[in-house]
Design a protein that fits this description.
Helix 2 runs parallel beside helix 4, helix 5 packs antiparallel against helix 6 and helix 8 packs antiparallel against helix 9. By secondary structure, this protein is mainly α. The chain is about 65% helix and about 0% strand. It has eleven helices and no strands.
């Protein structure tokens, strides 16, 4: 029944083997090219193939060799996103996730999932170097908070009045207030989200 030619019928070990083979081809091409952008594109392809095969050591190796400390191109930040899935230090992972969330819109859903909101915020704030980074940390921690967040919004504004997420949070806060105050009167139902 399974001839091996049908892509959808292949088993995982066969897929992983193919991914490793293609990743090695991409690395060879990255090593041969002189163009830095093309080199990183090839390396990113290899990193993704390793990522989907769950080859942690290869993901980390490729990231460290081609992307560590670089952020000028989108591909650099995409590579870091994949690398962060294997970051063992939870505070460091949360810190980097919050910074990437502010700049990599295409990976926001994945970053939101990767962020551990149960980790004490103070542990992550210790890693910050400036107010912009602190604002990004505060923003990530209130993304999942369904309660009142005016105090946190003020903190974010004081740290970084240009934070891109402020307008989103303000609209969300108004929506929550409307639901809490007007919801029962207009709909005859209790608020969807009960304030803390």
């Amino acid at each position: 029944l399974n001839s091996g030619d049908n892509y959808w019928e292949r088993d995982r070990s066969q897929l992983d083997s193919m991914r490793r083979e293609v990743a090695q081809i991409a690395i060879k091409k990255a090593e041969k090219t002189k163009d830095e952008w093309l080199k990183r594109r090839y390396a990113f392809l290899a990193l993704r193939f390793y990522f989907y095969s769950k080859d942690e050591s290869d993901v980390i190796h490729v990231y460290n060799q081609y992307f560590k400390g670089k952020s000028e191109w989108a591909v650099d930040r995409w590579a870091e996103y994949h690398r962060l899935h294997f970051e063992s230090n939870a505070a460091k992972r949360n810190f980097r996730v919050a910074q990437l969330f502010a700049s990599v819109h295409s990976k926001r859903h994945g970053l939101w999932v990767l962020f551990n909101s149960k980790l004490p915020k103070e542990q992550v704030l210790k890693l910050t170097e400036d107010d912009r980074e602190k604002a990004n940390i505060h923003a990530m921690y209130i993304l999942r908070d369904k309660g009142k967040n005016l105090k946190e919004l003020k903190t974010i504004y004081e740290l970084d009045p240009t934070n891109e997420l402020l307008s989103f949070f303000i609209i969300r806060e108004v929506n929550k207030l409307e639901n809490w105050v007007l919801g029962p009167e207009i709909t005859a139902y209790e608020p969807v989200i009960v304030p803390k």
